[in-house]
Design brief:
With 774 residues, this protein is mainly beta. The protein is built from 11 helices and 44 strands. 21% of the residues are buried.
């Protein structure tokens, strides 16, 4: 008996080993018919090989399983290798009965037909309807699952798919289901986007709708990969997420309950700030037939986020569309600071934000971002800006466009302003408007710089103290420099101007900004102790146009106030080597045109009245042309040149002084005056040359009809020197000629002659007077 058993075993294994080498072509027809009878589909088979050791069955290479013609002309499956296990009773029956089907590396096309069901449902229902030989188990290994809606193939597919579908013992039309796979996109190569795993039960009755009861798990997956899977691109958000969910119900109404965890969420170019975890519990419904999904987050012991997220999606396998929205009610505004930090959103350092947020914000694959948020009882602390408060602030989002509006923003000193702005995330265009009836010039400056990354408008950026009122609008196109427009009034503020000893105090000034033009009108102010009124304009040519009027000024005070413009300090070595003093950048670039009026200018012991002229300041060169003024009863005209290239200012005055009263007559002077330096140096460096004429004056008890001559004046070692040549003196009927000037003793002496007659004039230079010496 023992030998008989051994011989039988040897015979069995010999037969089993020989079966794969048997000629199998004549069985291909029967195998194809068995597969078509089981699957109710046309089947094309390739090379067939039998096996017995692992159970009676056969393997078929290059199998094509066609779909119903009414569903799709494309085959249902391309199978690299199909392993078939037969029931043992097939060995004693003439009919092949399949026990299991194993599809190795198949490419499956799951198609949704216009009637609303899927081709695989129809396939399984037909297979179950003809289950006389028992329902075979189905396995898929390393497959690719494509999704189609009619003739349109989805960009989504599943790669590396493994599937086990086996009948449940004791339950009719009930199957045990296990599945793993990696979702992917056809436009992203063969990359997988995280692995899905499912296990549970599937009930497919002969009549009625199929039902599922299963657990679904998404292993740890990159958020960037998932966003690429859903949106087709990386949106710049990195991190990871995991999810577990339970699905139950009919295919058209699956209840979903699960939990998701977001891990280390951060912007793509930043490192996560800490190992943060955000748990999200969710519930919803899935309709696999109509391809719709509704999910809402719910609050429970693990999920305590201050908002509710809602997900809506449809057309997964045809024309995908989806939307995500967040509903916020009473969310602490401080939460935004933490969220912004985690996502790498730029925000001012040490920003302290308080208040509550209500509203809905969302994103749709069709229309982009949409929604509105309301910030209530808000307060914000900005470095350098102090506290800002607002009862309400509204943020509206429409695609890439953001609109911010606050009816009233109050500062720490209880001043108020209204703020309204627009920003386009795509183009980076930015516009906002600030309006106020009275606001400190510094109260909102830091806020504008911090919140909008915009420089403060001209004039206000240079103001120190004071208030302004009016409206300002800022406009920036893309990354181009922004421009300001608007009109406002500034009061009681100090403005720092390069080249002046101290700030200019503005009592009031009306400012208008428009198309690159700055106009400051109705200016009332003071430069030190000198009060003035002014009008100012600056255009695109960067030239300053200034009209300034001064009621009364002291030349010494003006010189001290302008000292940084007039004088530049040099080291001893630089002075010894006579190196030129470098010009500061502000002086090189200064361009000023306009007019100057001084009603009364005090020059030491003299006073010039009605002084006016046309000013041109071009870098280190200053010219005052059409200069006019009155000295005593005399009227002067001329041109003043001021050169600021050297360390000390250099002056040159060319002009005419007419009808100067002297000794009962009048004197006219035509000439030039030059000097350099400041203070007493102006006297020590003074030189003058020209011509003069005196008419009808008294020299002692004698009347002189006229005197004409040329003169030279200079100061030598602190002492004045005066010389006259080409003198012609008319007295009565006589005309005298000659010359003269300052003598060694400092007195004046002139020697004149008319034929044989001689005349000598003597006098003093200070005060200037001469007498006929007898």
């Amino acid at each position: 008996m023992k030998r008989l058993l051994i011989a039988g075993a040897v015979l069995f294994f010999a037969i089993a080993a020989a079966i794969p080498f048997l000629e199998t072509d004549r069985f291909s027809g029967s195998i194809r018919e068995a597969l078509e009878r089981t699957l109710h589909r046309k089947v094309v088979v390739g090379k067939v090989s039998f096996h017995l050791i692992t159970g009676p069955g056969f393997s078929v290479k290059d199998v094509v399983i066609y779909d119903e013609p009414a569903v799709s002309l494309e085959p249902l499956a391309y199978v690299t290798e199909l392993d078939v296990r037969l029931h043992w009773r097939s060995l004693v029956r003439r009919r092949l009965e399949l026990n299991s089907l194993r599809l190795v590396e198949p490419s499956l096309n799951l198609t949704r037909v216009p009637a609303g069901y899927w081709n695989f449902q129809q396939l399984l229902r037909e297979t179950l309807g003809d289950s006389r030989g028992g329902v075979p188990s189905i396995q898929v290994r390393g497959g690719r699952i494509n999704f189609k809606s009619g003739t349109l193939k989805s960009a989504f597919y599943i790669t590396n798919a493994d599937l086990d579908l086996s009948p449940a013992a004791g339950f009719e039309n009930r199957f045990r289901l296990r599945f793993t796979g990696e979702p992917a996109r056809t436009d992203r190569g063969a990359q997988g986007f995280g692995r899905l795993a499912a296990s549970g039960w599937w009930h497919s009755p002969q009549y009625g709708e199929s039902e599922l009861d299963m657990d679904l798990e998404m292993e740890r997956s990159g958020i960037a990969d998932l966003m690429t899977l859903i949106a087709g691109r990386d949106i710049g958000l990195h991190g990871a997420m995991t999810s577990r969910a339970h699905l139950s119900g009919r295919m058209s109404s699956l209840d979903i309950k699960g939990q998701m965890r977001l891990l280390d969420v951060h912007r793509w170019d930043l490192l996560p700030t800490r190992a943060a975890q955000w748990p999200l519990s969710y519930r919803g419904h899935l309709d696999l037939l109509s391809q719709t999904l509704d999910l809402d987050t719910v609050q429970d012991g693990d999920s305590k986020l201050p908002f509710v997220i809602r997900v809506r999606a449809g057309g997964f396998f045809s024309q995908p569309r989806w939307a995500v929205s967040a509903t916020v009610e009473g969310m602490p505004a401080a939460y935004l600071r933490e969220l912004a930090t985690q996502l790498g959103t730029a925000s001012p350092e040490r920003l302290a934000l308080e208040g509550k947020i209500d509203g809905v914000i969302g994103y749709s694959s069709l229309s982009g971002a949409q929604g509105q948020l309301v910030l209530k009882d808000a307060s914000v602390e900005l470095p350098g800006a102090g506290g800002l408060r607002a009862e309400t602030a509204h943020l509206t989002v429409n695609g890439d466009a953001y609109h911010l509006e606050s009816p009233e923003v109050r500062t720490a000193d209880d001043q108020s302003a209204t703020v309204e702005g627009d920003y386009n995330r795509q183009t980076e265009d930015l516009q906002f408007t600030v309006a106020t009836s009275a606001l400190s010039s510094r109260s909102i400056q830091a806020a504008i710089s911090s919140l909008f990354s915009a420089s403060y408008p001209p004039v206000l950026r240079d103001c120190d103290g004071g208030v302004w009122q009016g409206k300002l609008h800022y406009d920036r196109q893309g990354r181009e420099p922004g421009t300001w427009t608007g009109t406002f009034l500034v009061e009681n503020t100090d403005v720092k101007i390069a080249g002046l000893t101290g700030p200019v105090h503005l009592v009031s000034a009306a400012v208008a900004l428009n198309a690159g033009m700055l106009t400051v009108s109705k200016v009332k102010g003071a430069a030190g102790d000198t009060a003035f009124t002014a009008e100012y304009k600056r255009g695109a040519d960067k030239t300053d146009h200034l009209q300034i009027s001064i009621a009364a000024a002291n030349a010494t005070d003006l010189e001290q106030f302008l000292a940084p413009s007039l004088q530049r300090k040099q080291s001893f070595l630089a002075r010894a080597l006579r190196r030129p003093a470098p010009l500061p950048e502000w002086l090189q670039s200064r361009r000023v045109e306009g007019s100057v009026k001084i009603a009364s200018l005090k020059l030491v012991d003299a006073e010039v009245a009605g002084l006016r002229g046309q000013l041109v300041w071009n870098g280190p060169v200053v010219t005052v042309s059409a200069l006019e003024g009155r000295l005593a009863e005399a009227h002067g005209k001329g041109t003043l040149h001021l050169n600021l290239r050297a360390a000390e200012p250099q002056y040159k005055l060319e002009g005419r002084l007419a009808q100067f009263p002297w000794r009962g007559g009048q004197v006219d002077v035509d000439g030039s005056l030059e000097t350099a330096g400041l203070g007493t140096d102006l006297w020590l460096n003074l030189t003058s040359a020209g011509s003069l004429i005196a008419r009808s004056f008294q020299a002692g008890g004698d009347e002189i009809k006229s005197v004409v001559g040329t003169y030279d004046f200079s100061v030598v070692r602190g002492a004045p020197r005066f010389q006259m040549t080409d003198i012609e003196l008319v007295q009565g009927q006589d005309t005298y000629s000659g010359q003269g000037g300052t003598q060694t003793d400092g007195r004046l002496q002139f020697e004149l002659a008319s034929g044989h007659q001689k005349m000598r004039l003597a006098g003093t230079l200070s005060p200037f007077q001469v007498e006929i010496a007898r």
